[in-house]
Amino acid sequence: MNERPVVILTALDLEYEAVRRHLTGLRTHHHRAGTLFEVGYLADGECRVVLGLVGKGNHPAAVLAERAISEFDPLALLFVGVAGRLWPQIGLGDVVVATHVYAYHGGTSEDEGFKARPRVWEISHEAAQRAHHLERSGTWTRRLPEGADIPKVRFGPIAAGEVVQDSAISRHAQWVRQTYNDALAIEMEAAGVAQAAHFNRSLPMIVVRGVSDRADGTKVTTDGANWQPRAVINAAAFATALAAELAQQPHSKSRTASLRKAEDRRMTETVRNIARGYARVGLQAGAIYGNVSVGQSPEPAADATTLLAELRDELMRARTAGTVDEDTFAAAAKELSVVTESLSTDTEQGKNRAMIALKKLRGLLMDLAELASMVTSVITAIRGGS
């Protein structure tokens, strides 16, 4: 499992809940500026997901997308929700994956009329390839509710502006269709998210929209027929399947994760200097990780079972002290049970299951440095026992 998460953002509560139903082991993450994210895993446990609500509009979407990127260092950023279609051949409920995002409100006003000067962002090549592969395989449809109609997945540009378009004949609607006549759908957040991703070394960013209205003056009718929840269910199914797909690709670890792993290795290394006769051992060090023992042999490293017991006790103390909330404690206790049960089988498969559960546990406790460090010690002990 890739240790870096996939960030999924939505604009509406309806969209947020549709994605949330695909996640498990959720815990709340409080950003120092007041934003609340939820961190959990896809139901299959193979992808860590950060879920956030940005509200309507490109500007808040850009700010909160940047906030999520800085906070979580994701391997990819997805924006999921509903959109209005721009052409009749696109059906209600269809899923549109943006190949390009147009920020269509850029332009210059001259005597002879308004001249478009759009910003354009293109989906990354690998993300596009994986999205197409997912559509061809059809495996993403397993995430749809049982008995649901299977929508078409369409790839093409999406236009992102600052107004809700609900007319086919207004001057604005005619200008959009004429100037951006290859755009499949229209919405209000993708440009902000795309800009934030672009400013972060071209972080892979994918916009997945379910078509909920025709953007032609019939929005009240389609909303009354419940096309918004139907469309966003389709978009959430495809987006979470794509997140799982992206998590399988070999990404380089973040610099923070690489440093942490290197530190873990240093902390488990043992160096012994032995002096005989009249010789003496001196110590000169710039940085010391772990314990230094002089005049005695180092104690043997604790085994995984002992470390698990200590971790369980420390978790209970943290719960009593109120540093771990009840939801986090319950989720952590569940993963500890999986670890204990998996290790009891004394098989390679059981060991692998235990390692996955421990990585989930470390993600749950990432805000509590001491507990997260204890989880890392258990992981190190299991690896060392191979």
Automatic annotation (TrEMBL):
It holds the Pfam family PNP_UDP_1. Keywords: Hydrolase. Its EC number is 3.6.1.55. The keyword Hydrolase applies. GO terms for molecular function: 8-oxo-7,8-dihydrodeoxyguanosine triphosphate pyrophosphatase activity. Residues 5-242 form the Nucleoside phosphorylase domain. CDD domains: MTAN. It is an enzyme of class 3 (hydrolase). The keyword Membrane does not apply. This is 8-oxo-dGTP diphosphatase. It comes from Nonomuraea roseoviolacea subsp. carminata.
